[in-house]
Amino acid sequence: MAGSGPVSSPDPIAQLLVSFREESARGVSSRAEFEALKGRYLGREKGLVPALFLGVRELPPEERAGYGARANAAKREIEEGIARLGETLARAESERRERTAAVDVTLPGRRTRAGSLHPVTLVRRRIEEIFLRMGYSIADGPEIESDFHNFEALNFPPEHPARDAQDTLFLDRKAESPLLLRTHTSPVQIREMRKRGAPLKIIAPGRVYRNESVDATHQPVFHQVEALVVDKEISMADLKGTVEAFFGALFGAGTRVRIIPTFFPFVEPGADVQMGCLFCNGAGCRTCKGSGWMEIAGAGEVHPAVLRACGIDPEEWSGFAFGLGLDRVAMMLYEFPDLRLLFEGDERFLSQLAPLS
Amino acid sequence: MKFSLDWLGDHVTLPDAGAPDSVRRLLDRAGLPVESVEEAHGVVVFDVEITPNRPDAMNHRGLAREIAAMSGAAFPNASGKSVGELPSEGPPAHELSSVEIQVPGLCRRFGARVVRGVRSAGSSERVRGRLASIGAKTIDAVVDATNYALWDIGQPLHAFDLDRLRGGRIVVRRAKKGEKLTTLDGVERELEPGDVVVADAARAVSLAGIMGGLETAVTGKTTNVLLEAAWWDPVAIRRTSRRLGMHTDASHRFERGADPESIPEALDLAASLLLAAAGGILAPGRIDARGRPFARRRAVLRLTRLRLLSGDDRLDLDFAAEALSRLGFSIAKRGGKRRTVEIPSFRGDVSIEEDLVEEVLRVWGYDRLPSRLPLTAGAGGHFEPLRLVEEKLADEAVAAGFHETFSYPFVDRQADESSFSAWLEATGTAKAPLSVANPVDASRRDLRATLLPGLLDAVSRNFRHGAHGVALFEVGRAFGGDGDVSRPETFESRRFAFAIGGDARPHWSAPVASRAADFFDVKGLVERLLEPWADPRRLVWKPFAADAFATGAAARCEVGDGRLLAVAGIVGEDERERRRLPERVCVAEILVEAIPRERRPARYVGYSAFPPIVADLSFAHPRDLAWEKLEALARKLDLRDLESFALLDRYEGPGVGEGEVKTTIRLTFRSAERTLEQAEVSRERDRLAAALGDELAVRF
Ligand SMILES: [Zn+2]
After folding, report:
1. What CATH class is the domain B2-71?
2. CB of B37 within 8 Å of any CB in chain A?
3. pLDDT at A357
């Protein structure tokens, strides 16, 4: 064989590369094997790669440069090869670790328990939001009321048949003005007008009570919201525009609303607010008693006697008020069949509407 | 109230040849909504809702007047005129009987006619058919005649057997104390001086305006009849009818106010029907006794007011006058921009300008009014800050997975709340409950003093329906008996209560034993709910005992100054049994009004840029050494650079002595200025360990 290098032994650099290439091609199966391989080639003390450089001094000076360059190239190749082996090993190890922690992705997820507001609260808040946007303030009053606030100041004379419709629950306390459970949220009108005077622009949501036996459409406890605006020249036109805007916002644009005359002692002129029947779209059905309209709120211009009872001069100020039942609105919006559901506390009922509202 | 379309046609020409839909639309617009339309034997019958202010519309002629006003038809029409002069002979009525009114304020008019020589008979086919169509009973010629007049023109009448009236005369007076009267329904009534009666020379013979007496009623043997038509004071009639529980067609109208002017024609109408059906001779003349006279009533309508209240500038006084006259009003005086309006006797509900405006607008049509929004300025917002507190509490409870529920506030104090009496005591509501005088359900006449029993019942119902975990809350008012009657709000207190039972963390990945709700679920939520107003570290929890709670597993929560804020606890076994709660249930109730009014400020607080060093300590100690003591000791030592002192673990079981627990605490140290060294942290930890050993005898 012809050659230019030392004749006594084969080239150690080439030999080392051959054996490294073989070994690295086999790869390593564990961290220990990897560390052993790394030590054998790159170990500072006895490593095969550092050993290559030990022989340099024994070479003739003219060969040293060439040998050195080749040894450095081999070192680089081996270092890179070992680093690659290390990466491959790390990848394999992490994959193994992950596999043991693998999940059945079809198992049920851990959801935080979702709570819910009561359907009537959902409706109340929706209504409050509509009025807040229109610049109304939210007022509040006691559920225990005096006859004065609940009736007298609202122009219900004593011994008047209009009181019959209210089915009042009276309390067992002797008082100058008999105590009762308020039958409507209207006494809040009285309290607020007496406290703040005019102008005034409020709503008063709250719980009210009547002496009614429980059935699908009657409850002794239910909820109302009352709206009241008192200012200069507040007219039936203001009332009409407001109920149209409000019910449009609550039930959706295109909701048909009308007012027709009726009687409540605390308003004059008085009005019933009616909405196009949601069930038959105005064609007439059982729910709307064939009329195509559903009564949804009581309304009217605040009676001058009520303004006077609150120290407001009816020649200077006028106002409108309207009130509606939240429970019935909830029933219409969510289409549940029975008011008793509202007081049963069954989670199957309570939880199903909130996520969708 | 039922009305026959055919009968209405006696008084007015109906629109569209009496097409029910057209008539219905008119009545709706008038504010007399039709509840139902029925047709039987070719007669269309409306059920009309008539508000209590409109007794004038509670008869066919009155409703016909409304129809005419709305449609513009003539009223009354040709067939609707009164019966006219009736043939009569013999001695005049005032020789056959007499009427004396002793209570002129309560009986302001009493009219009577006498028919002699009637025979027992039924009424005509037409009268019977008419009455039957609107569901009124038909009895005999006399009673049917009075009923027909009632439904036709609205005046209630009563018929006496004149021969049974002692002295043949009538005295209108108050009942005497203890006086008795057997009414037509056969019930003997004990009367009071507040009741007004029609009496003869000797005794009460009729409960005025409500029901006649049995002894003087018309029978098959009656030959001479005295017909009564009177005006009675609404309040007096209402008091008596309510006291005796007697609601009659007559009292319904008198309570609401009858028309004194219809008395003569009602007598004539009834008399003519009676004569036609039962024969007899009408005595000439009417008795017309008067009490306190009726004043002529007037009100002024100003154009400015009409336009201001309606918001409709198209309205003018000419239209107003036309509308009012169609409804039976007349213009007494014309001013430039005002009209003085004479109010008809049948419209007792109208007395002021606003009433006139409503009448004009009814005819104009509410549907024609313009729409606009009030220009009133308003910023919006809450007047009552506690409502916002309640809202925030509810939002947090929802976020924590609780469902809002409502309970009825009617309870029986003894049955429902006695196991909570210690809590009622603590909240000042333990004395006699506030109760309803006329309860819906006599077994639940008290108003709740705590929301907890209602909540537990709701939890129980959910378990019964198969729920495994239940989490409910309620926002509402509790009622105490110790209020100031002149300030009704003092009987109320605002509460926020919640309950959690059974599986609190129902996920398959957690060990079953760790999922059940426990005390720390409710304590933790109380802390979280109150956090916006009260720093949880400033809340003081003290053991609390009430029968409803498990022994040693309830606490009252106070804020710094000792003010009671809440109670929280595990429901005891007796209570669970009574309320049928198969799983452990924990509850809490917060006194909303006791929450500090000021919210804690939301302000930035800086934090360290340096890393923390953590040191744990584990030690054993008796179970009854309160955590609070360990915390207090750590606070007292004021360990240098201690950032937090937290309970990491608590263990009871194998390896720990009987009655002992093993506690592991985690100390986190961090300096704001530099990175701490392990050695200085260990020194502080050891200082705590030594103190724990010395002062609290814990063992490491
Ligand atoms: Zn319908």
Report:
1. alpha beta
2. yes
3. 66
Farthest CA pair distance, chain B: 131
Compute the distance from residue A226 Cα to the ligand 1 centre, in Å: 25
Q: Which residues of chain A have pLDDT under 70?
A: 1-9, 357
Tokens of B247: 């609601």
Asked if the domains B2-71 and B298-364 are classified in one and the same CATH topology, the answer is: yes
Nearest Cα to Cα of residue B338 among B321, B325, B322, B351: B321
Residues B649 and B626: their CA atoms lie apart, in Å, by: 15
Q: Domains in chain A, please, with CATH?
A: 12-92 (no CATH), 119-350 (3.30.930.10)
B93-290 in CATH: which number? 3.50.40.10
User: What digits encode the pLDDT tens for the residues B541-577?
Assistant: 999 999 999 999 999 999 878 899 999 999 999 999 9
d(CA B197, CA B205): 7
Residues of chain B with pLDDT under 70: 80-81
Q: How far, rounded to the nearest angstrom, does the alpha carbon of residue A211 sit from its chain's CA centroid?
A: 37
* pLDDT at residue A321, rounded to an integer: 97
Q: Which residues of B602-622 are buried (b: 16+ CB within 10 A; e: fewer)?
A: eeeeeeeeeebbebebebebe
The DSSP code sequence of A251-266 is H-TT--EEEEE---TT
Please count the residue pairs, one from chain A and one from chain B, whose beta carbons lie less than 8 angstroms apart: 287
What is each CA distance from B608 to A286, B225, B601, B639, in whole angstroms?
A: 70, 106, 21, 17
Query: B483: which chain A residues are within 8 Å (Cβ-Cβ)?
Result: 144, 173
CA distance B142 to B161: 10
Query: In a 3-state reduction of DSSP, which class is residue B473?
Result: strand
- The CATH number for B385-594, chosen from 3.40.50.1110, 3.90.1510.10, 1.10.3720.10, 3.30.930.10, is 3.30.930.10
pLDDT at A58: 82
Distance of CA B288 to the CA centre of its chain: 44
| pTM, entire model | 0.88
Percent of chain B with pLDDT over 90: 88
CA distances from B487 to A174, A278, A307 (A): 13, 43, 21
Percent of chain A with pLDDT over 90: 64
The number of helix segments (H) and strand segments (E) in chain A equals 11, 10
Q: Is B78 exposed, middle or buried (0-12, 13-18, 19+ CB in 10 A)?
A: exposed
CA of A295 to the centre of ligand 1 (A): 11
- Among B428, B407, B305, which residue's Cα sits nearest to residue B361? B305
Interface test with A, best of B25, B26, B50, B51 (most A CBs within 10 A): B51
